[in-house]
Design goal:
578 residues; 15 helices; elongated; 7 strands; alpha/beta
Length: 578
């Protein structure tokens, strides 16, 4: 083989190798392009997966929050249905909640000699409360039966022995009473009964002239041409609005006496009775608005209407408002709708009110305090209740807050019956120190809580309404909470379970009028039936200028003055003259 041929063959081989390498290079480039496309797709898929992951985590957080809210609502519902209604917390439970925290603090104190200052609330630390003022222990109530009321009618039954039983077994003589009778008291009950009052008016005329016939005037009746005397009308009103009996049950009770009053008649009696009592209820409102502070709250009530609403229902949810003065009078007002600004809402009732108004911090109430004529007073019981609802998730933090409120209410209990000046002085000296520890603790705790949780809601509520919640510290006439008004609304809530709804708007307004008088009587310790029976007898002829005398307080003061005068006269008669 010649050198020339060898060179050509090598050149061909190199060319073939070069072509092969170029083909491989092209294939590698194609593969690289494909891999780059795959890498870009993977990057896109990775970004999409990360977005999906973020969305799923967000959805998970939302679902966990929703689950926590549902579990919290379920727990509250079970507590409302099956648990005890009292919110009192056993002090021993509060100490248990602090046990783990105190053990940890003791361990840290052994390592770090300098404790945190009182009032500071770093992570995991609970501030120190000021020492509790020493107070005398409450005397325990005695056991045994209570003294029997002296005003109850007594039936005396004397059980005598037969002559044979009185014969002495020794000498055969008759035994005689030694004057020390054995007396045993027992209670019995006779149901109330209907009576018929006959108003007999003899007719007189001259026997000579046979002219000029005269007859005594008929005493005024609560209902003109009606069958009901004041006692029966008062019984129907107290039965429905104090004992919470629907009118059909009252009808059945009266039917036992052999008299059947149709339900329409009973409805008419309630309507007429409420009309007679309305001026007294208006006077109670005037007195309530003149007090130093007015407490207010509301509850829902179903009202039946003849026409249907947009959903085809005859019933609509209205509200019944309670306004309470510091002296005990309560005024109820029906609001046809749930709106606060309707013709019967608090914006209208309190339009000319100047001064303190106590209510829970409902956002709808903010409009009442915008112009500055009314000063908001918060309800600490409402704030405390929110912490009670968060006890399951944050037991240690809630235990500390409840301990503070336990001390606050212990001071308030001690101040019952004290003068406003004394109440203010003690609150400034003792209660204010407790809140001076609690407030920084809540401020430091708030940023560490997950928004929307029960604990965050409770803490933010207390921080947001702090000025209103602490306002009672500066005024001895104010109360720490609005519980008196909430108790007044129980009168409506218990009755609502029995009569379910008001038959008309007019019936709801009548209920508010009678609730005003019955609720005020209960707050003042007056028997509603005795009060209504007397007032219904006199209201139609009583001067309008002296209507205040017929309010429960005016009626009670007149009764007490009459009793005092009678006792003074009795003492003067019994005391011999010198």
């Amino acid at each position: 083989m010649t050198p020339h041929m060898t060179h050509d063959a090598e050149l061909e081989r190199l060319r073939a190798e070069n072509a092969r390498l170029l083909a491989e290079l092209q294939r590698a480039r194609v593969e690289r392009t494909g891999l780059e496309q795959v890498a870009r797709r993977l990057e896109d898929d990775k970004a999409k997966l990360e977005d999906d992951k973020a969305k799923l985590e967000d959805d998970k957080a939302k679902l966990e929050k929703k689950l926590a809210d549902l579990e919290h609502k379920h727990e509250q519902l079970c507590q409302r249905l099956f648990g005890k209604s009292s919110e009192k917390v056993d002090p021993a439970q509060l100490h248990l909640a602090f046990a783990e925290e105190e053990a940890r603090e003791r361990a840290e104190a052994a390592e770090t000699p300098t404790p945190p200052h009182a009032g500071e609330a770093p992570d995991g630390e609970t501030p120190t409360l000021p020492p509790e003022e020493s107070k005398p222990k409450d005397k325990k109530k005695g056991h045994g039966r209570r003294a029997r009321p002296k005003n109850l009618r007594r039936t005396r039954i004397v059980h005598k022995l037969s002559p044979a039983e009185l014969t002495c077994a020794c000498c055969g003589g008759q035994k005689r009473s030694i004057g020390s009778d054995e007396i045993t008291h027992r209670y019995d009950y006779q149901p109330a009964s209907l009576t018929i009052v006959e108003h007999v008016r003899p007719r007189y005329r001259c026997p000579t002239c046979q002219d000029g016939t005269v007859v005594a005037p008929l005493p005024p009746a609560p209902i003109e041409r009606g069958l009901a005397e004041a006692g029966l009308l008062a019984n129907v009103l107290t039965g429905k609005f104090s004992e919470h009996l629907p009118l059909n049950r009252i009808r059945q009770i009266l039917l036992r006496e052999g008299v059947d009053f149709p339900r329409s008649t009973l409805c008419d009696w309630v309507d007429r009775g409420a009309g007679l009592l309305e001026p007294i209820a208006d006077e109670i409102l005037r007195q309530v608005l003149s007090h130093f502070v007015v407490g207010m709250d509301e509850t829902g009530i179903l009202i039946a209407f003849e026409d249907k609403d947009a959903k085809g229902n005859h019933t609509r949810r209205g509200k019944i408002w309670a306004y309470r003065g510091r002296r005990g009078e309560v005024y109820y007002k029906i609001s046809e709708t749930k709106a606060h600004a309707d013709g019967d809402g608090p914006q209208v009732v309190l339009a000319h009110r100047i001064g303190f108004v106590q209510a829970d911090a409902d956002g709808n109430f903010d409009v009442l305090f915008k112009d500055g004529t009314r000063i908001e007073v918060g309800c600490n019981a409402h704030a405390r209740r929110k912490f009670v609802q968060a006890k399951a998730s944050h037991p240690t933090e809630v235990a500390f807050v409840l301990t503070v409120y336990q001390r606050v209410y212990a001071i308030e209990k001690r101040l019952r019956g004290a003068s406003p000046e004394e109440r203010r002085a003690v609150r400034q000296a003792e209660t204010k120190k407790l809140f001076d520890v609690l407030d920084p603790y809540l401020d430091a705790l708030a940023p560490t809580l997950v928004p929307g949780t029960p604990m965050a809601t409770a803490v933010n509520y207390s921080i947001r309404h702090r000025a209103a919640l602490r306002r009672f510290l500066d005024h001895g006439e104010l109360e720490a909470d609005n519980n008196a008004v909430e108790r007044a609304l129980r009168l409506v809530a218990v009755g609502r379970r029995n009569w379910l709804f008001a038959g008309s708007l007019n019936a709801a307004k009548n209920a508010a009028i009678v609730y005003t008088l019955v609720g005020s009587c209960k707050d003042l310790g007056v028997d509603p039936w005795e009060y209504l029976r007397d007032v219904l007898t006199r209201v139609s002829t009583h001067p309008a200028s002296r209507i205040a005398e017929l309010t429960p307080r005016g009626w009670l003061e007149a009764r007490e003055a009459a009793r005092a005068a009678s006792a003074a006269n009795s003492t003067a008669v019994e005391t011999p003259t010198a």
